[in-house]
Amino acid sequence: MEHYGFISILPPIIAIILAIRTKNVLFSLFVGLYFGSTALAGWNPILGFSNLIPNYIYAQIASDSNVQSLTNLLIIGAFVALIGATGGASAFAKSVGKFINNKRKAELSMWFGGLFVWFSDSANSLLVGPIFQPIGDKFKVSREKFAYVLDATSSPICSLIPIISWGVYIMGLIQAELDALPSYTMTSWDIFVGAVPFQYYSILTLLMVGYVAYTQFDYGPMLTAQRRAEGGLLLREGAVPLRNTKEAKLPEGVDPQAKTVMPSLNSLSFPMGSPSTTIML
After folding, report:
1. Which terminus, N or C, of the chain has the lesser number of Cβ atoms within 10 Å?
2. How far from each other are the two terminal CA atoms of the chain, in whole angstroms?
3. What's residue 270's pLDDT?
């Protein structure tokens, strides 16, 4: 759309402005897409709408990379839902309670969690969010601060790792340029790894999150949100989370525990010749 000039950047601008105003990301993205589709259809709104789903949305969903991402999100989302439904998140919060006993340690644990889950930027938020939410709620970390920690430790950490899909995609773009320079001896891997120390945004963002968590230095709207949370309101008035953030209701008497269960050798059996012959260790 380079020949459309300024119009080519209007769809994302519209989506961002609507998202800020309406707090509805899905609706805002759809409007931005519809505007772009209408522009491509010669400003015919009916043709733009009819082209939007089959020619743009479905076409992008059907691409290999997007199908892989959606499949990963589906599997991870189901796993996270299982953890929440079985009380796993609250059990984890209970098990680490003896180590995390104040807000500083709670936010630092969220930061470390974000640094540890680096195989996917989307998986980072999907996994770290539900697991550390009970810890943040316990020590009255506002949802705004929680969202900041999750967001600032997802894409920045992934952009520094060359062995995940993010790095492979970037190296693919670099390789396309290297193919046009046959005399250039460096590989896309060499360029990506060599550029890591110069990714100032990602590095400084990760360090800033750790600094804010350790020093508890909040300012502006974040400070207002933190003070509100200390009064018991983790969410601002009127906020409607897109994800169910309520703690799972387990049957009476059930006490979920977070622990690793290893099978005992005494319980293993090995077939010997016939199906009825086993050795019990």
Report:
1. C
2. 69
3. 41
Helix 64-85 and helix 88-95: axis angle, to 10°? 70
Q: How confident is the model at residue 191 (pLDDT cuts 50, 70, 90)?
A: very high
Nearest-5° angle of CA 70, CA 145, CA 163?
Answer: 40
Neighbours of 36 (CB within 10 A): 22
Residues sharing a CB contact under 8 Å with residue 174, sequence separation 6 or more, in sequence order? 188, 191, 192
- How many distinct structural domains can be found in the chain? 2
What pTM did the predictor assign?
Answer: 0.69
Residue 193 in any domain: the answer is: no
In a 3-state reduction of DSSP, which class is residue 277?
A: strand
Bridge partner list, 269: 280
Rounded to whole angstroms, the Cα distance separating 231 from 40 reads: 50
Domain, as residue range, for 35? 1-62
The region of weakest confidence among 138-152, 158-172, 203-217, 250-264 is: 250-264
| 54 assigned to some structural domain | yes
Residue 65: CB atoms within 10 Å: 11
- State mean pLDDT over 13-33: 90
59-88 pLDDT per residue, tens = 887 777 677 777 877 887 787 777 777 777
**Can you give the three-state secondary structure of 158-177, one letter per residue?**
HCCCCCCHHHHHHHHHHHHH
